[in-house]
Amino acid sequence: MKEEEIRPKKLFDELLRLNRKDISVYFSKSKYMKIDCPACGNTGIFVFNKNGFNFDECSKCKTLYVSPRPNRESFNDYYTDSESSKFWATTFYKATQNNRREMLWKPKAKQIQRKIERYVPTTELVVDIGGGYGVFMEEFLKLESISHLVIEPSTYLSSICKDKGLIVLSKFLEDVNKDELRADVNKTFVSFELFEHLHSPRIFLETLYSLMEKGDMFIFTTLSSMGVDIQALWEESKSISPPMHLNFFNPKSVEILLTKVGFRTLEV
């Protein structure tokens, strides 16, 4: 798979341009707060500035993260209604969805099916947090006849999922109540490339933990600060594109955070 096949340069550059434009709309009046490492709580060291956002790196666990950080409300508005979010939903993803379906989501659906069969074969409900365009859930439901729920706060993306006939809860996970989920069945929660976007990964995980029942499972993927592309390019990496991407964990640091919240990790 070539990057151009799922991330055409012209479209990706336009997405990044709109992303930079949205900064003045959604973050110019934000209240910024200095934060410590979102994984281990250690005080980070400034390493570079990009798009007006400072990045610190934790000297202990090597997590790379934005600090000081704008308030959560600014991010909620940005992800719900911004021009870059709309462009991603209506133009960028639409133009690449066939390649992404074949190269990313079909293999991912099969991989998740195997994980569920191995660890929680009694799963009766699959919940996709930040389900985006709904392609993962479409492909997974081709493999398994199972109840599902897509949690997606974006106005544009949640509408697309609903148009596909998917069951959608149009909220941020942090605003979901336990009575909106089924407590009487085993659930597997999944989330792909969402962690790097989270305003507070710890609050996200604490909310998720409180929503889960004994025997439930959470599977997720995220960008790593130890990736060879980020290590080589550093602030020149297009993956480092605040305010879209705020957190770059790594296998060591994300396990630290998961353990703090109370999760038992099966694979990292």
Structural class: alpha/beta
Q: What is the rounded distance between the termini?
A: 24 Å
Beta-strand percent range: 15-25%
Rg, rounded, reads: 18 Å
In sequence order, what are the helices and strands, one letter per element? HHEEEEEHHEHEHEEHEHEH
Helix content estimate: 40-55%
DSSP helical segment count: 9
Which of globular, elongated, flat, extended, rod-shaped describes the shape? globular
Q: Main sheet? A: 5 strands, parallel
Overall mean confidence score, pLDDT: 93
Q: How would you portray this structure in words?
A:
- The protein has about 270 residues and is of the alpha/beta class.
- The chain has 9 helices and 11 strands.
- It has helices at about 5, 10-25, 70-80, 85-120, 135-145, 155-165, 200-210, 230-235, 250-260, and strands at about 30-35, 45-50, 55, 65, 70, 125-130, 145-150, 170, 185-190, 215-220, 245-250.
- A 5-stranded parallel beta sheet has the order 8-7-6-9-10. Strands 2-3-4-11 form a 4-stranded antiparallel beta sheet, with no helix packed on it. A two-stranded antiparallel sheet has the order 1-5.
- α7 links the parallel β9 (about 185-190) and β10.
- α2 (about 10-25) crosses α4 and α4 (about 85-120) runs parallel beside α5 (about 135-145).
- The longest helix has about 35 residues, at about 85-120.
- The relative contact order is 0.15.
- The mean pLDDT is about 95.
